[in-house]
Amino acid sequence: MSLSGLGDTGEAQPPPALFPAPESDTPTPGRRRGGAPQNGPAQHSSSQQDDDAGRQLVFFGADAAEPTVADLAGLLAGPGEVVRMGGTARLSVQVDAAWRVHVLVAELASRGLAANWEPTEGERHAVRTSYTRVLKPLAAAWLHGTTKRPPAVFHLTGRRLRLWLAAAGTPEPPDCFLLRLGADDQECWESIGVALGAAGLAGTLLGPGEGGPAYRISGRRRLARLAELVGGPPRLAPAGAWPLHP
């Protein structure tokens, strides 16, 4: 099943509405992101608009720069995978909710990448790009043989964190957020934790037996920092699924 953006060839097409938001969840209004599907005009209260107008862009925040293919390192910081074939590469990630498929396909399309999805076991969905030369540098930076490992100098920008959050971020009431990791990516976990700390998001590593693997970001101050970096919630994100400014 294909939800196409731009690959090496072809014209951009908007992703079809294959995944409505779950009926039990109410989409949270937020900023419209490039290419994101909309069921209607986004709504903001006047106080929210005033707050947004008065807030400076956070350095390295999701709104501080245009989207680039390098941002996809945020998916690889989480459970995303990249594989090579000849002079091309393909990126894939499994997600646990329909709204995440919508968001990721739109984010990939905004970076000129064709994407497709398919249902997998456990009511999950696999989102993957086509094989393309565009992803070859990302694969070269992250793959050591077939093992995924962050580059020696790796940092998390707002756009990278936004993609990670869209793919694998989970709220943990009352004041925590889990950023889930790849179950087989133990060699990545420590370096990813260092990058989180450098971004002001030092977290606690949870192992598989503790509800992970994931980093738990806790406390109002760190959650406010996370909200600043990743920007407003995607249009189809259910209520409570995205960190908000206090």
Describe the structure.
The longest helix is centred in the middle third of the chain and has 13 residues, at 98-110. This protein has seven helices and eleven strands. It is an alpha+beta fold. A hairpin with a 2-residue loop joins strand 6 and strand 7 (147-148). The strands form three sheets. The protein has a five-stranded antiparallel beta sheet, covered by helices on one side. It is globular. It is 28% helix and 20% strand.
Brief summary:
It is built from seven helices and eleven strands. It has 246 residues and is an alpha+beta fold. Strands 1-4-5-3-2 form a five-stranded antiparallel sheet, covered by helices on one side.
Overview features:
globular; 4-stranded antiparallel sheet; alpha+beta; disordered N terminus; 11 strands; 7 helices; single chain
